[in-house]
Amino acid sequence: MNESLPPKELLIRFFEISFKAIEENAFLQNLYQRGEYEKIMKRLPKELIEDHAKEDVESSLDFVKFLQGKGVTEEDPEILIGLFRIIMLLPLHREEIGEQTFLKTIKKLIACLSNDLTT
Fold first, then answer.
1. What is the pLDDT of residues 3-16, one digit of tens each?
2. Is the pLDDT of residue 34 over 70?
3. Which of 1, 14, 105, 107 is spaced 20 to 30 Å from 91 by Cα?
4. 3 state SS of 105
């Protein structure tokens, strides 16, 4: 991440990089598209899932604080982390969204989120 970018551009770049990383990861694509994720989640103890979710939030807090220090206005770190997850999971729903408009929709969503989070 280029720390010298304005807040809006920093967020746009982060969302784009996150989106691309998930979209290009064949393992994750197969995991979700073949329904394996749900099967795995059903087998795991609830406590393990909750612990992982908590660790995920905690490990993301430094990055959230960095973004907030750069001008991101959302005060609740869990909201930001949730938005990051949404963007990263969208490639898994390309077909439901529609192939024709998928990339345009993603770009618009990223622009809207970045505008809202930096005003």
1. 688 889 988 988 88
2. no
3. 1
4. helix
